[in-house]
Structures are given as C-alpha cells and as structure tokens.
Amino acid sequence: MAAHVMQGEGLEIVRIRVDRPALIRVDRGIKTVKPARGPAVRVLPGQALLLAGGQTVDFHNRITDGERYEARWLMFSGTVLADPYYLAATERISPADAGLPPARALRGVPAGLEEAFERARSGLAPDPSRPDAVVRQQLLEVAHWLLAEGLVLRVPADDARISGRIRAMLSTQLDGDWSSPAIAKALAMSEATLRRRLSVEGITLRELIADVRMASALILLQATSRQVSDIALAVGYDSPSRFAVRFRDRFGFAPTAVRGHARGM
C-alpha cells in the first residue's frame, strides 16, 4: 500500500495497529511515534521513519508551519520481502532470529532512496499496463536501498492471537455483515469459545470490529479525497452521523478534523 497523508491540523492518534513494515517520509510537520514497547521516535521534515510490522503504536502528527502536516507512506507485504536474494542479504546484516527495533529514524535520506521510494509509490497506483512483477521489483529496490543504510525489513510472524486472525478477516470486507455466529463459523469454533478467547485478550468482538473499521476509515480520510459519507459506507456504516459519533468515540476528534482546511472540509 502507498499513501499520501495530509492533515489540516495536528492530531494525536492512539492505538493504531501496524500489520506490515512501513517506510514513512515526512514532508511537513513533525511526526512522533510511540510503540507499545520501546522508546518514542521523532521525525522532522526531510527525514524518514521505519516501522516494524505486527505492532500497535501511538502517532502524534504536529503542524509547525501553520498550514498542514504531510507525509508519504509505503508498506511492504510478505510477497515482496520473501524474495530469496533479499532474504540472503538481510541475513548478513541481521539474522532472522534477531529482533528488530519497533521504530527507527532515518535522519538523512539518500537521493537514490528518495527516487526509488517515489517510483515504488507511483508503481502502486492503479495501472493495468504495469506488470505486477515490475511493481514488486520497484518495492524491492527500496528495500535494498534501506539495507544499504543498515536497515532491515522483515515480515512479522503470523499473529497467533484470535483477535489478530479476526482483524485479518475483517480487513477483506470492511462493510460485511460481521455477526458473532458468522465469525465463529469462519474460525471453526463456537460463539462461547470465541467470546472466551477474546476475553483472555481483553477485548470484545464488538470493540474489535469497531476498531478495525475506524482504523481503516482513518487511513481513507488521510490518504484519499473521498467524501466522508462514502468512507462511512465503505467501512460498514449506513449512517454518516452514526459513523461520525463512533469515530469521535474512538479517536477523540471528528472525521473532518483529519483533513481540516487542507482539503476544504
């Protein structure tokens, strides 16, 4: 996934699940990320942030020029990072059983990495004439530039938690009618077992479904120009007003605050 995030006001966004490794290039404003485990990392304009996948983090996006916060994202799938040549190269720097920091800052972005980053982002734009193999190679080029800086990308281990499996399922169809019986059946367990296993992880099914939908809505608000009402429908809410209430309950600010004056909303 690639995204170009713009915010019309500074926001603190808490408890966001990052499932894939991500490279974030900050163009305007200041980004601070606080992983659930590990120290906070602050990134200034012109710098980049590398996030490990499979973790929950807090983001604080701050405006410094009085206009907007702006950053570009690139996320890496297991299909790309499973490339044999890349895996062999990573082993020479960091063995597979070595842990990676949850967040790392790249204070200076080499020109070659910046160019590869933009080519990969452009390659992920919908274009039926661009072969998938070419897009994968463009993403791998970014990964190898990072490797030259001593920065390794690694696919996180499969999430064995029941909540992780449900998150992955919900993400395939955010506007689906996800009832407890349907999810329990898909996971080949009873509803009672489903409730019990989620309780052990400290979350209810209703909370989990709302969180996945709200996190996806946040991405769509940041990275697209779609109307709020369209985004509400896309993540499973027939009523934009009900969606706005749920969004404010989750993040502490209205959906329109994400864009502010930067997008005229």
TrEMBL record:
Keyword Transcription found: yes
PANTHER family: HTH-TYPE TRANSCRIPTIONAL REGULATOR GADX (PTHR47894)
UniProt keyword terms in alphabetical order: DNA-binding, Transcription, Transcription regulation
The HTH araC/xylS-type domain, residue ranges: 164-261
InterPro entries: Homeodomain-like_sf, HTH_AraC, HTH_AraC-typ_CS, Tscrpt_reg_AraC-type_HTH
Entry superkingdom: Bacteria
Name this protein carries in UniProt: HTH araC/xylS-type domain-containing protein
